[in-house]
Design goal:
eight-stranded mixed sheet; ten-stranded mixed sheet
Length: 1903
């Protein structure tokens, strides 16, 4: 007992102490435990004994600066603190610490941080005293003062007035005095932290704005001065005026003109809020909208001018030239044409085969087999060449069924001008050709190559040449046209070939040094050595000699007679000159020391004079293979003589001579080669050529040879008009580039992708890391960032427009020129831009390498640190210069993308604007790679990429796309692999590795589309992970982001590993595994293949199993590491994705077969590529999650937005999954409605049967039988939906839950129906018991009335006389009834209420309170009277006042309780049941249920008074209604009362019995009177369901899911602009939901077309038809029953039976008619029909004036039940979950979250409402407090408990305009509603105030 008393006393003292704390504004929940723990005080009295030292111990626990003052007031030491501060200021004997030298703000901030940590360390040092803490504060204050003084001095010296002002403003706000250069009080931990934080943030903002605009930076400085203050301290107008004067005095008129004008505008004006608003507008860059509008008009005009369509003068000329060219080729070479037909190429000649034929994925490209017929050869050739398999040159097909190539008689074909000439040219081949003896049966491999060459257009030729060169195969230099004999010089074809080599300098300072060359070979100046043959030689092959020279017989560069597949004769190689280059590698064993070109003229030179003459002019050395010199004809001798007399050296190789000495005078050398050892011959020939090339030689580039080719009359492919125009334009643009320094091209000509774009990216990323800054809210920070982003975009537009000549010409040309011209243009641009940057980049890289080597050497020799720092700085500068000097086409397109993004953000959408992404989309369709992720900024321009996809969809349709991405360490051959696999054009040249990510589109052949399940492959190539970016700027975070993105976007990712370096493997595997783990956590399921390159093929198989085992172990190891980082428990990689180590790892041989640059690609590598390709498409075929282009665009957006956030898994929003789920919700809504509608029909039929007394039991089996057909049909539809819907792979996760929900819904509806039926049956049973006595009297009175009628039947009495007779007898009859019936029981309802209340509530004096409670008193919720605060720590009441949100919630609960009780009584009244004492218990239970509805973690709850007052009010109100119910029940069930009410019924029966002549008519009228109320009721019940059904099917608001309905509600609210409606929606969302549906139903039914009347008429017509049918059937049955005498009774039986499910017409109600005698049943039937028609007309007339109030069950309630769904509310903002399914799976979700002010949230100790939106908060660094005083980061809000963890609140970077508009528009009303102000941190950002209603509504349309 004593212990309990002690506890009570202790609690009472603690309560008093808590109250004392609260008086000073301190949080008792926080400070009371601190005071008890630190100082040991337990009572209020102990406070007066505390000293200054005690205060010091508490001061370090201060959370906010204002708490220090509050503590001083509490401890009554305020004066003492001031005196101590004064003492320290004037104290001189204390030795001053050494003055810190501070010259940079960063140094000051660092000093402040050190002082803060110093104080903290002293405070928490064990045994630390108050005096020690005091000394520490003195030292920290003095050090801080001196540091600030030192910095201010430095800033004054450097004349940095603005920075000096910024420091002064923040320091003085903390108490710094400029005059004494010290603080007026000691600084503690909070003040120093405040200064450091504010200076850092203000400086960062100032510098950021300064880079963009000086005016905005100065505005920021001014605004800081007017607003900066420690937390929870507001500046008075006087203080603001003083600060403004101080700032103006400091700046001494040096403000910018715009700032001066702004200050002048506000001079003398005390409206500080307006000045601050204008400063904010200036900072956000939107102060002068008119100027912006004018600027935008100029920009758009410039853009329109750029895309203006000029007349292309070249078009007609181009077409005519092409026509002429084709006509020239129309001279038929029948043998050549026969070859084309044999190869299946006739439709491609001439030049009709394009890149599409090369890149399209077809069946051939997926097979690793041999061609079986000649028509397959071209496809196989292209496929093998694609995979860089040099064995393609041996490709042949030996098929006995093929006809042998024959020679047809030479035919001269006249020139035809008809357009169909080419279609007829092959007709000549239909005739059988005579065999040419000796020709082999298969096609010569070189004929195949050249046939394809002749059929290929320029772009395919160029690609073929590039691939052939890669394979180290010879290329055609001069090509005779087989049909016209004109010779072609294919310069354009050779213009993309890149070669690298190393040469050793022989003279000058660089002698002996190796120089590296990487050039487009057509531009390289090289000596040319030409080989040709005079005569014929069966023994020697010059091609073989050339191969020996070039590769020492290791590789056949030139095809020769002994190659596999060769035949004796080759049709298309006669007169062809092939070229190949020898490229040295700077090695001692190089054959030649410089790059040398070798030309090979095929055929006898005597027949090809033009080619020989051309070669003589360009060659440095000629080599002639001379045969049969003795018998040589005159032509041969002349030719040889000419060669000997030529200036060019000549080497004669005599095939018929032996041992001729090589030595010869001058430049002509003869060598006999008959019977010579080939090796010796090659050595000799090599030495001779080297000697001849050593001197000054004639060197030519192919580019330079072009003029000579023209002089000889050769056809130069580069001379085609389209090519000429394109090259001229490309040269013009590159000349513009050359005017700038290479490293400054981007900054000068492409300014949008530089600093401004990087700043924009930084700001965009800040949106995912929002934080409260300088007493501003999260939403202010967000709004500020959005404004800064917009300002940066404006700045970009200012720099971009008017467009410079480069971009204007580039974009204009791509928009206006035909497709071929654009292709030529892009190729030439690449050539010329590579030429521009290649050389300088090599020099820069060489410098970088040398410098890096020097740094490494320095580290080893341990040189001084200073040198290393300087060198590293130079290294960084070189790195930046290399990056700036890398220029390519991607940068021009990137600039176009930036222009688009800037214009899109400024809402400047015009036709010209849309053309920008159309250009990029056209390039993608044409086969060009387009940048997906900016490699320099490492950022994805989402709007630009999205627009490209939109344009692709418009151009191609929404096609299915398989996405293949590749990932690997830098320089491991990723791009080379993709080029070999698909022939793509990713950068692998010009000294640039892939940066960022590129995407390229590859079409799938029609024959494969159905089989594979997609139409295109999108290949994504990425920059290398762990890229050695200059200066080591690449971070692990970037690698993880890149890997996550490309793996997430790809259906399959090829992970490329080079070599077997364990460190490298670990790097790539760790990154990849983590990315796959993230995909698993967000329900994405990409697959992967590992490609292990550079594995020794000889031992690969033997090492395979061991390697696989180790690889699997490494993967599992990396999985464990990644799982720990991602906080999940997974130990095996196969648990992350479906992975099979046996099939998902591919080992690749080394790329080269030997040492580059002369090594050909390894054929095994090509074979590996083909196998990998087949495996990829085999796996792709099994993929089910193939996206369409539109879905892929959404996926890219989802991935990128999630990557911007720190927590990818938390932030990932799967738009495709959300869209699929919303579609499922809509489908579920339709299925649920069908089920609900059908069961409603069943219910109505059953209810009618029960009311008619025809149903006494509703077995569950029968009930299920009635709905089985519909239920089964819905189940089949559900199965079909999940099986055939396009998103079935995504949907399958919800299939079981959806089926379960439908079953649960069916179960619920059946239970409700069964319960309703059983309740009605019970009521009917009870009623029948009550009616039994009444029926006895009724039967007796009917009998007596019939007897009376019999007595009067012969008399001729009028109706009035009959009534008198009836009345006389009636009064006697009715007087007998009361004597026969027992009296009814009386009930005292007031006494019952009193007893039940006293039983439930045991309070002193409550009995008297019940009796004295006035009946007319209402109930009003009073928060002071009815609410109690809960206790902290078990005994301390929560000091916080009851929030407006809590008050509103309590009011809402109260209204719900009252409404629920009223509805319950309404229902009982409708059922016409008698009063029961249990009704009072139900009221009290409803009150208790409402009291319990307050969450257990709430800060306050209802008290006892609330329950008592509300219970009393409700019971007293209900008492009057219960009395009326009881009275009505008594009246209805008293026999006398009942019979009196039916007097008219008995009289009518009496009349019918008396008036036999008219009784049938009376019978019919009487029957219809009985039918009327039943029909009336049935019409309204049926119409209610019909209205709901039609609105659900046709009304847009109700056609979809709950989210769709929610959007409709928000749109309605905005359009009405009625705040009361908004208030109802916010406070009582479910109530407004019902109200909105009711409004829509009312509106739908009450329109001018009288829709409600039509509904009622329709239902009446249907029911009327049913009744007529019942009349007809009943009549027919009676007519057929001859055995029955009681025809009327039988007719009534059948009639009621037919209508038992249609209307409520109990057979017992028609007893008075059943004893009539009828002979003419047809007459009875017609009389009934006639009366029914009158009844129908009467009802139709009534329905014309009907309204919805006439319905017993309102149509809107049916819809509301259907859409009820989930009503859980967001724990932060109160927004309701919009899931259609109640008890749904997964998290609660909401599209539109809203400001926390809507739940009454206010900033601590203020009435300032919180405007932060929870979808912004979860992207911020902020915290929130849960009930147990624990602080949780918003980013991990799910850790706060069940209520939070069940919600999915994703960061939302969209504008969220709707609620921002609402807050701005209804600011005053909201402030009144929530009893707060939008001020301070809750100030409404200016950007919100500029949002229009139209913008808010348009955002709703986009969601």
């Amino acid at each position: 007992m004593a212990s309990q008393q002690d506890t009570q006393e202790r609690d009472a003292k603690a309560q008093l102490l808590a109250e004392e704390l609260e008086k000073e504004g301190l949080d008792a929940g926080y400070w009371l435990p601190k005071m008890m723990q630190i100082l040991g005080i337990k009572s209020r009295e102990a406070l007066q004994h505390l000293e200054y030292e005690d205060y010091l111990q508490l001061e370090c626990e201060v959370q906010h600066p204002w708490e220090k003052t509050a503590l001083q007031e509490l401890l009554k030491i305020r004066d003492k603190v001031s005196s101590i501060n004064v003492e320290w200021i004037f104290q001189t004997e204390h030795p001053l610490p050494k003055s810190p030298k501070v010259s940079e703000l960063e140094e000051l901030i660092k000093t402040l941080q050190q002082m803060k940590e110093y104080i903290h360390a002293v405070i928490y040092e064990p045994g630390s005293s108050a005096s020690a803490i005091h000394v520490a504060k003195k030292k920290a204050t003095l050090t801080s003062s001196l540091a600030i003084y030192s910095l201010l001095q430095s800033l004054q010296e450097w004349a940095q007035k603005e920075m000096e002002l910024l420091v002064l403003l923040i320091a003085t706000s903390t108490g710094y005095q400029v005059e004494s250069s010290t603080f007026q009080h000691l600084l503690g931990h909070p003040e120093i932290q405040y200064m450091a934080k504010e200076m850092e943030e203000a400086h960062e903002e100032y510098v950021n704005l300064k880079e963009q605009d000086a005016d905005r930076a100065e505005a920021s400085l001014l605004l800081t001065g007017l607003t900066v203050t420690p937390e929870s301290q507001e500046l008075s107008p006087e203080q603001k005026r003083e600060r403004l004067v101080f700032m103006e005095d400091h700046m001494k008129g040096s403000w910018s003109t715009q700032i001066k004008n702004l200050l002048q505008k506000h001079r003398g004006d005390e409206d500080w809020e307006r000045l601050e608003r204008d400063l904010n507008s200036l900072i956000s860059g939107c102060l002068d909208d008119k100027w912006d509008q004018q600027k935008m008009e100029n920009i758009l005009r410039d853009l329109e001018d750029t895309f203006a369509t000029p007349e292309p003068p070249s078009q007609s000329q181009d077409k005519s030239d092409r026509s002429q060219s084709k006509a020239n080729e129309a001279i038929a070479n029948s043998e050549f044409l026969h070859l084309l037909k044999r190869l299946g190429l006739e439709s491609h000649y001439p030049r009709k085969m394009g890149l599409g034929d090369f890149h399209t994925i077809n069946k051939t490209s997926l097979q690793d087999s041999q061609p079986s017929k000649d028509t397959e050869l071209p496809g196989y050739f292209l496929q093998r060449l694609l995979t860089v398999d040099y064995r393609v040159k041996y490709l042949s097909c030996r098929d006995e069924s093929n006809p042998k190539l024959s020679t047809l008689p030479q035919t001269t074909v006249e020139e035809h001008q008809h357009s169909d000439f080419f279609e007829k040219i092959f007709d000549v081949l239909e005739e059988a050709a005579p065999e040419r003896g000796g020709r082999d049966g298969h096609v010569h491999p070189m004929d195949l190559q050249m046939a394809i060459f002749h059929c290929a257009d320029d772009f395919l030729r160029q690609t073929l040449a590039t691939k052939l060169a890669f394979c180290q195969l010879a290329l055609p230099l001069l090509v005779p046209n087989p049909c016209t004999s004109r010779i072609e010089f294919p310069l354009y074809t050779l213009s993309q070939i890149q070669r690298s080599w190393k040469e050793v300098e022989k003279s000058g300072k660089q002698a002996g040094k190796k120089s590296y060359n990487n050039k487009l070979i057509f531009q390289a100046q090289t000596p040319i050595v030409s080989f040709f043959r005079i005569g014929s030689s069966a023994s020697s092959s010059k091609s073989q000699l050339l191969n020996a020279l070039l590769s020492r017989r290791k590789h056949d560069t030139f095809f020769h007679r002994h190659c596999r597949g060769s035949t004796r004769e080759c049709l298309l190689m006669e007169g062809v000159v092939e070229i190949a280059w020898y490229c040295p590698r700077g090695s001692p064993d190089d054959t030649f020391e410089c790059c040398v070109a070798f030309c090979n003229l095929h055929g006898d030179t005597r027949d090809h004079g033009a080619q020989l003459q051309f070669l003589q002019e360009i060659s440095a050395v000629n080599v002639a293979l001379v045969s049969d010199l003795k018998h040589m004809d005159s032509r041969g001798k002349e030719l040889l003589q000419g060669l000997l007399q030529s200036e060019r050296p000549l080497i004669c190789l005599l095939t018929e001579k032996e041992n001729i000495a090589a030595g010869s005078h001058s430049k002509n050398i003869k060598i006999g080669i008959k019977n010579r050892n080939e090796a010796e011959l090659i050595v000799q020939l090599t030495n001779i050529i080297r000697e001849l090339l050593e001197g000054p030689n004639l060197c030519f580039s192919l580019d330079a040879c072009m003029d000579k080719a023209r002089q000889h009359g050769f056809v130069v492919d580069a001379d085609q008009p389209a090519c000429v125009i394109a090259k001229a334009k490309a040269k013009e643009l590159v000349d513009l580039l050359k005017k700038e320094k290479l490293s400054e091209i981007k900054s000068q000509l492409l300014p949008l992708q530089g600093k401004l774009w990087n700043q924009w990216c930084k700001k965009d990323k800040e949106l995912t890391r929002l934080q409260e800054k300088r007493n501003k809210s999260i939403e202010h920070h967000r709004s500020q960032i959005e404004n800064e982003k917009k300002a940066l975009r404006r700045k970009q537009l200012e720099q971009a427009f008017p467009l410079n000549s480069l971009m204007k010409s580039f974009l204009g040309f791509l928009q206006t020129q035909p497709a071929d011209t654009k292709k030529y243009f892009l190729r030439w641009m690449k050539v010329l831009m590579d030429e521009l940057s290649c050389g300088p980049l090599e020099e820069l890289r060489r410098d970088y390498h040398n410098l890096w080597s020097e740094i490494q050497a320095g580290k080893k020799s341990q040189e001084k640190n200073r040198v290393n720092v300087e060198l590293l700085s130079r290294l960084d500068a070189l790195s930046d210069e290399i990056n700036d000097s890398s220029i390519g086409l991607e940068h021009l397109l990137r600039e176009a993308g930036q222009i688009y993004e800037a214009l899109e953000l400024m809402n400047c959408k015009t036709e010209s604007f849309v053309k920008l992404p159309e250009i990029a989309a056209e390039l993608m369709v044409s086969g060009y790679p387009v940048e997906l992720m900016d490699g320099d900024a490492s950022y994805l321009p989402l709007r630009w990429v999205g627009a490209i996809f939109d344009s692709l969809i418009e151009r191609l349709g929404d096609k299915r796309v398989f996405v293949l991405s590749v990932l690997g360490i830098q320089s491991t051959g990723k791009s080379t692999l993709l080029n070999a696999m698909f022939g793509l054009q990713f950068n692998v040249s010009a000294g640039r590795c892939t940066r960022g990510a590129f995407m390229q589109l590859i079409p799938v052949g029609e024959e494969l589309q159905q089989d594979l399940g997609f139409d295109f492959v999108l290949v994504v190539d990425t920059e290398g992970l762990r890229a050695t970016k200059m200066g080591n700027k690449q971070s692990l975070s970037h690698d993880n982001e890149l890997a996550t993105f490309v793996i997430g976007v790809g259906n399959m990712t090829v992970i490329n590993i080079f070599g077997e370096n364990p460190s490298e493997m670990q790097d790539i595997l760790q990154i990849a595994v983590q990315a796959f783990l993230r995909m698993k956590k967000v329900n994405l399921s990409p697959s992967c293949l590992f490609v292990h390159q550079n594995v020794g093929e000889a031992t690969a198989k033997e090492r395979n199993m061991e390697g696989q085992r180790r690889f699997q172990e490494k993967l599992d190891e990396m999985t464990v590491v990644a799982a720990q980082q991602e906080f999940c428990d997974i130990s095996s990689f196969s648990d992350v994705i479906g992975f099979d180590v046996n099939t998902h790892i591919h080992y690749f041989a080394h790329l080269w077969e030997g040492n580059p640059p002369m090594a050909p690609p390894n054929p095994t590598y090509s074979q590996n590529v083909q196998q990998l390709k087949s495996k990829i498409f085999q796996a792709a075929k099994e993929q089910r999650s193939i996206l369409k282009l539109s879905s892929l665009k959404d996926r890219i957006g989802d991935l990128w937005n999630a990557l911007l956030n720190e927590n990818f898994v938390f932030s990932f929003k799967n738009s495709l999954e959300i869209a699929a789920y919303r579609k499922l919700e809509s489908a579920f809504s339709q299925w649920a409605w069908r089920l609900r509608s059908h069961i409603l029909d069943v219910q109505m039929r059953l209810v009618n049967k029960i009311r008619n007394g025809d149903l006494q039991n509703v077995p569950r089996e029968e009930l299920e039988g009635w709905v089985k057909e519909t239920s089964d049909a819905i189940e089949k539809e559900v199965e079909k939906y999940f099986r055939e819907e396009k998103d079935c792979e995504t949907l399958v996760q919800w299939q079981s839950s959806t089926e379960l929900k439908l079953k649960e819904l069916k179960e619920t509806l059946l239970l409700e129906t069964k319960k309703k039926c059983e309740t009605l049956i019970e009521l009917q049973k009870e009623q029948r018991k009550l009616d039994a006595r009444k029926l006895e009297y009724e039967d007796e009175l009917l009998r007596r009335s019939r007897e009376l009628a019999v007595t009067l039947r012969g008399k001729s009495l009028s109706e009035g006389e009959l009534e008198e007779e009836f009345t006389l007898v009636w009064n006697n009859w009715i007087a007998e009834v009361p004597h026969a019936s027992p009296p009814l029981e009386e009930v005292d309802i007031d006494r019952d209420i009193e007893d039940v209340l006293l039983e439930h509530i045991k309070e002193p004096g409550f009995h008297e309170r019940i009796r004295s409670y006035p009946k007319e008193r209402g109930f009003s919720f009073d928060k002071e009277k009815h609410v109690m605060k809960k206790k902290n720590l078990g005994f301390i009441p929560d000091a916080r006042t009851i929030s407006s949100a809590d008050e509103i919630n309590f009011q809402h609960i109260t209204e719900n309780i009252i409404a629920s009780v009223r509805a319950n009584i309404d229902e009982k009244e409708e059922e016409k049941c008698d009063y029961s004492r249990s009704f009072i218990h139900e009221i009290l239970n409803e009150v208790q249920k409402g009291v319990n509805a307050v969450p257990s973690n709430a800060r306050c709850a209802f008290n006892r008074d609330y329950s008592i007052d509300l219970s009393l009010y409700l019971c007293k109100k209900a008492a009057e209604r219960f009395k009326a119910m009881h009275e009505a029940f008594q009246k209805a069930n008293d026999p006398a009362e009942y019979l009196s009410s039916k007097r008219e019924y008995f009289f009518q029966c009496f009349l019918i019995s008396c008036q036999r002549s008219t009784w049938i008519t009376s019978f019919a009228g009487f029957l219809c009177d009985k039918i009327e109320p039943a029909l009336h009721r049935a019409v309204y019940e049926s119409t209610a369901k019909d209205i709901a059904t039609e609105m659900q099917g046709k009304f847009p608001d109700f056609q979809g899911n709950r989210a769709n309905l929610e959007v409709s509600i928000l749109r309605y609210l905005a359009e009405q602009e009625n705040f009361e409606d908004f208030r109802c929606y916010l406070m009582c969302p479910e109530d407004f939901f019902h109200k909105y549906i009711a409004i829509q139903v009312q509106s739908y039914c009450s329109d001018e077309s009288k829709r409600l009347e039509r509904f009622l008429d329709s239902s009446l017509h249907l029911l009327y038809g049913n009744i007529l049918s019942a009349v007809s059937l009943s009549t027919q049955i009676v007519k057929d029953r001859k055995d029955r005498e009681d025809k009327v009774s039988l007719w009534l039986d059948e009639f009621c039976r037919e209508l038992t499910e249609v209307i409520s017409l109990p057979r017992s109600d028609l007893k008075g008619l059943e004893h009539q005698e009828v002979t003419d049943i047809e007459f009875l039937s017609s009389a009934v029909v006639e009366n029914l028609a009158a009844l129908r007309d009467r009802l139709k007339k009534e329905f014309a004036d009907a309204d919805l109030s006439s319905f017993s069950r309102q149509p809107h309630t049916i819809l509301a039940e259907h859409f009820s769904g989930c009503w859980e509310q967001c724990p932060f903002c109160g927004a309701v979950c919009t899931n259609t399914m109640q008890g749904h799976d997964g998290d609660h979700q909401r599209v539109f979250h809203r400001p926390r002010a809507f739940v009454g949230a206010k900033w601590r100790k203020t009435d300032h409402l919180v405007i932060d939106i929870c979808s912004s908060l979860v992207a911020s660094d902020g915290f929130f407090k849960v009930a147990d005083s624990k602080y949780i980061p918003y980013k991990t809000y799910r850790d706060a408990g069940t209520h939070f963890s069940s919600w999915s609140i994703l960061p939302d970077s969209s504008m969220q305009a709707y609620w921002k508009w609402f807050v701005s528009h209804f600011r005053t009303q909201l402030e009144a509603l929530y009893n707060g102000k939008f001020q301070g941190k809750g100030e409404i950002p200016e950007a919100w105030q500029r949002i229009s209603k139209e913008e808010a509504l348009s955002e709703l349309d986009r969601r």
